[in-house]
Design brief:
3 domains, Aminopeptidase, nine-stranded mixed sheet, Pdz3 Domain, 30% helix, disordered C terminus, binds zinc ion, six-stranded antiparallel sheet
Length: 521
């Protein structure tokens, strides 16, 4: 809702009107949500499976581009577009764009509702061809038998049909136009998508995003791979935010190669995504049949794709292409996450994990000149309490040291026959309230990515892990890491964090010690 500036004296008179308007707006927002939910819920396993069964039937003979089977598949798609009442968006005034040796892309468009933004297009696409009876070049199985290509790519083709139907169910289209595109001759070397990208049937400078769906019928370990999330700022968050209901584990792959139809768009600096559930034993073999399709898994994937596409088509602003995506590679710190950096040495002691228990943690060494040494702590001492925290384990000790604010009261028990001593220690460095370090990433604005989570820290106890993304703190967005640091160090605890891990959002509550300084996180 927009904020209307109002002077104080007018406020009383305007208040009833404002309340009425709020009521109207809430009602229309609720209606919009209800229609979006209905559209999403229209995507169901039975319908997804039924398109796959038809397209992967022997009568289509493996849908090779330029063959009768390929043409039969194209005709099926045109009929479905006709049923939905979509506008033809081919190059011949109809749904087809013909090219090559009798090849045909099949295209339809849902015009956006905004007079200006409808000039912009979001593309939802999949290749519908497969490899027919296979050849030495294309088949990994028995050449001469029909290769039905149920997963490759009747699954993606079916997904586009269901997405088109869901979009057509909406009482009004999104602001931008959505182009539904079926590419032919992908299996001959991305011919259809390349041909269209070179000869687009919508204004080429106004394509804001392309989502390619290729092989989504084999969801395993609940994992969907999404390529291209770094082709525009904020795509990872867009995907994760729409994944709440589907709850898929997302592998955000950095790889960008010419292995599917998203690539011609990446080459033309158009943000592009590619959804995929991975290759398998039936890949490019005569055994890639409809009965092996996981239509429940497909449903969850297609519902996620609907939400993402809707947001791209509806949101006021659409992120632009990130040129860096073509040259960057995943940072090594994510891979070697456990060994990333050392825990800050504030006390200067080491201990044997075996020597910890009910009566404290036994120190094996004390670094000369360290805070512990200066305070008179000696090897063989057992630390029982530090800054008010009772110490039962090395983690307790490490966590208490990280967060403690000077001066720190330490209780040590030298030996079994000696009296407990109380010491005052001046720890080195600054206290860490959460016990984390983080990175920011140009591809993920408004997000911090955890690099280290120190053992025993408040963050570690709450279950945060390296690689976790923090999207919000105490319900607040932040624009940069300076603002995040400010909020993390000044807001009263406990801190509620909105965390993304593998594309799933979760709320993690971090309990920070109240006495801790507000100067560092
Ligand atoms: Zn293929």
């Amino acid at each position: 809702m927009n904020r209307i500036p109002v002077c104080r004296s007018c406020l009383a008179g305007l208040l009833p009107l404002v309340l009425v308007l709020c009521g109207v707006l809430d009602a229309s927002a609720a209606e919009k949500n209800a229609s979006l939910t209905a559209a999403i819920n229209s995507i169901v396993p039975d319908q997804l499976q039924s398109h796959v069964v038809i397209l992967a039937d022997d009568t289509m003979a493996g849908r090779e581009a330029g063959t009768p089977g390929g043409r039969a598949a194209a005709e099926y798609l045109v009929e479905r577009f006709g049923d939905l009442g979509l506008t033809a968006a081919g190059s011949d005034g109809g749904f087809y764009q013909r090219f090559g040796a009798g090849y045909r892309n099949v295209l339809a468009i849902l015009k956006g509702r905004d007079p200006t933004l409808s000039q912009e297009t979001v593309i939802l696409c999949a290749h519908y061809d497969h490899i027919g009876r296979g050849s030495k070049k294309t088949s990994l199985g028995r050449i001469g038998e029909i290769h039905n290509g149920a997963d490759d790519n009747a699954s993606g083709t079916s997904a586009i049909l269901e997405l088109a139907e869901a979009f057509c169910m909406l009482p009004e289209p999104p602001r931008r136009s959505v182009l539904f595109a079926f590419w032919d001759a992908e299996e001959k070397g991305l011919l259809g998508s390349n041909h269209w990208a070179a000869n687009p049937t919508v204004p080429p400078g106004r394509i804001v995003a392309a989502i390619n769906i290729d092989m989504i019928g084999r969801l395993r370990d609940n994992q969907l791979t999404v390529f291209g999330s770094r082709t525009a700022q904020g795509y990872r968050r867009l995907i994760s935010t729409n994944n709440a209901q589907s709850d898929l584990r997302i592998d955000f792959s950095w790889t960008l190669v010419a292995n599917a139809d998203h690539y011609p768009f990446v080459q033309r600096q158009i943000p592009a995504l590619f959804a995929h559930t991975g290759v398998h034993d039936q890949y490019h073999r005569e055994t890639d049949d409809a009965d092996l399709i996981d239509s429940d898994g497909m449903t969850r994937i297609v519902r996620l794709l609907f939400g993402m596409t809707y947001d791209l088509a509806e949101d006021e602003r659409c992120p632009r292409f990130r040129t860096a995506c073509r040259t960057e590679s995943a940072p090594t710190w994510v891979i070697s996450r456990e060994g990333a950096g050392a825990v800050p040495q504030r006390l200067g002691v080491a201990w044997d994990p075996q020597g910890a228990g009910e009566d404290g943690v036994e120190l094996t060494s004390v670094t000369p000149g360290s805070a512990a040494d200066t305070a008179g702590i000696r090897p063989g001492d057992r630390v029982v309490e530090l800054a008010g925290h009772i110490v039962h384990s090395g983690e307790d000790l490490a966590g208490a040291v990280l967060a403690a604010v000077n001066p720190v009261r330490v209780v040590v028990k030298p030996r079994e026959d000696e009296e407990t001593r109380e010491l005052v220690v001046q720890l080195e460095g600054t206290p860490l309230r959460l016990g984390i370090t983080w990175e920011t990433d140009d591809a993920e604005p408004g997000t911090v990515i955890l690099k280290q989570v120190f053992p025993g820290s408040a963050a570690a106890r709450a279950g945060l892990r390296p690689g976790d993304r923090i999207y919000q703190i105490a319900g607040r967005d932040f624009t940069d890491d300076g603002q995040f640091a400010e909020l993390a160090t000044t807001l009263p605890g406990p801190l509620e964090l909105l965390v993304e891990r593998e594309g799933r959002l979760t709320t993690i509550v971090v309990h920070v010690a109240d006495e801790i300084s507000r100067r560092a996180a």
